[in-house]
Amino acid sequence: MSGTAGKEGLGEAAGSSTPPTLLPPTAPEETANARNKANHRTVWPYGNYRSYYSFRPAASSNTESAPPADSLDGRLAFLDRQLFAGKRLLDIGTNSGKIAFDALRHMGAASVVGVDIDPLLIEDAWRIAGELGFAKGDDRLNFFAANVMDEGWLEEFVASGTRRVDVITLFSITKWLHLHHGDAGMLRLFRSLHQVLPAGGVVIIEPQEWDNYKRAVKRNKDLRETFKAIKLRPPFEDEMREAGFELEQRIEREEGGFSRPLLVWQKVA
Ligand SMILES: C[S@@+](CC[C@H](N)C(=O)[O-])C[C@H]1O[C@@H](n2cnc3c(N)ncnc32)[C@H](O)[C@@H]1O
Questions:
Q1: Rounded distance, CA 163 to CA 141, Å?
Q2: Which residues does the UniProt record annotate as the domain Bin3-type SAM (predicted)?
Q3: For 15-43, how does the pLDDT look when each residue is reduced to its tens digit (9 = 90+)?
């Protein structure tokens, strides 16, 4: 089993940020081992890891090595380019924007909006956008810090201005949304996704496995109550069908010893 991708799977991170629970700064003489141990005790309440893409493998890398900055994301590599070509993408839980950048640079997306609950990650995304040569004010690319689970947020976001979307990606985020908002929150999200997409619109979900939830809960007591009340299980197939989607494709993948399927859903007219 890989020690890289598995970190996300286990709800742990290699990076550093300013989440609510942090250990004191690491003393310079501490070994890499000790630093790793410290990071393992850090709480990332929303999966809002920094340096996330240093441990998610790219399409061309093996799972032990960090991907080069401009290599295609390992999940996008499994998906048909036609899903993105000429489409307006909303990437929910964009972290530092890797999926957004790759959708524009490698998958032919017409425009991308990335949204993340952590404003520090959105700052990172803007900084990386500059490094990649995206001009400020390029209307093909935008990032927002917001909690997509705030009631009515998605509906208002899509209704406002010209922010129509054709494709929505939810990669490695359903565990966090589920643990914070429970079954009711997920059902509401699926209804909102259906409401904001046009007929033929697509949702692509990379759900975390149920077994994967427990570590996050162990690490963060605040999630226990919601966790105990959860009845629904990923990958939420029945619930997505009930919300009005049809499963177009299920791509089986494994990453770092974890099952990482990609489910491509389409809104039926
Ligand atoms: C594990 S990371 C996955 C990042 C990216 N989707 C990927 O797979 O490459 C989950 C991301 O979702 C974000 N997130 C969690 N809950 C959120 C919410 N309610 N609204 C917006 N973003 C959220 C976290 O801050 C984090 O960046």
A1: 11
A2: 73-269
A3: 333 333 333 333 444 455 555 555 545 67
